[in-house]
Amino acid sequence: MDSKFEDLEGNFYGVGVGPGDSELLTIKAVNAIKNADVIIAPKTEKKDGSVALTIAEPYISDSEIIFQTFPMVKNFEESKEIFEQNTKQILEFLRSGKNVAFLTLGDPMFYSTYIYILRLLKNSGAKVTTIPGVPAFLAIASHIGKAAAYGNDIVTIIPATAQKSKIIDALKISDSAILMKVYKNFDEIVGILDAENMIENAVLISRYGLDDEKIFENLNAHKSDKLNYLSTILTRRGKVED
Ligand SMILES: C[S@@+](CC[C@H](N)C(=O)[O-])C[C@H]1O[C@@H](n2cnc3c(N)ncnc32)[C@H](O)[C@@H]1O
Question: 137-236: which CATH topology?
Answer without folding.
Answer: 3.30.950
